[in-house]
C-alpha cells in the first residue's frame, strides 16, 4: 500500500487540511461519490501550477527527512519567482482572471 502526498491546493476551500498536510489522513467518502471526487480532484490538480506542485512535494519530502537545510536548499524556494508561470499567475491575480499555466 502506498500513500500519496496530498497537496493543500487539492483541498476544497474551507476544508480542514491539517491532517493531510501532516500526511496522516486522506479523504473518506461514500462509494457512490468516489468517481466524481476523483474527477474533481484530477481537474483541480490539472488546473493548478505544475511547477509549484512539484516544488511543494519536493520540499515536503525534504522537510520530512529532517536535519538543517543547506543554503542551496533554502535559496531554492525563491526560484519560483523567476518562472513564466509565476508571471502568468501574478498577472491573472491582478486581473482577477483564471491563469493558464504552461509549466515553465
Structure description:
This protein has helices spanning 18-22, 34-47, 50-65, 71-76, 84-95. The protein has 104 residues and is mainly alpha-helical. 51% of the residues lie in helices and 0% in strands. The chain folds into 2 domains: 1-47, no CATH class; 49-104, Orthogonal Bundle (Lyase 2-enoyl-coa Hydratase, Chain  A, domain 2), CATH 1.10.12.10. It contains 5 helices and no strands. The protein is flat, with a radius of gyration of 16 Å.
Order of helices and strands: HHHHH
Determine the N-to-C terminus distance: 33 Å
CATH topology of the largest domain: Lyase 2-enoyl-coa Hydratase, Chain  A, domain 2
- Quaternary class: single chain
Tally of separate helices: 5
What is the beta-strand fraction? Answer: under 5%
Rounded radius of gyration (Å) = 16 Å
CATH superfamily of the largest domain: Lyase 2-enoyl-coa Hydratase, Chain  A, domain 2
Q: Assign the CATH architecture of the largest domain.
A: Orthogonal Bundle
Number of strands: 0
Helix content: 40-55%
> Would you tell me the overall average pLDDT?
78
Poorly predicted sequence stretches spanning 5 or more consecutive residues: none
CATH class of the largest domain: Mainly Alpha
| Integer tally of domains | 2
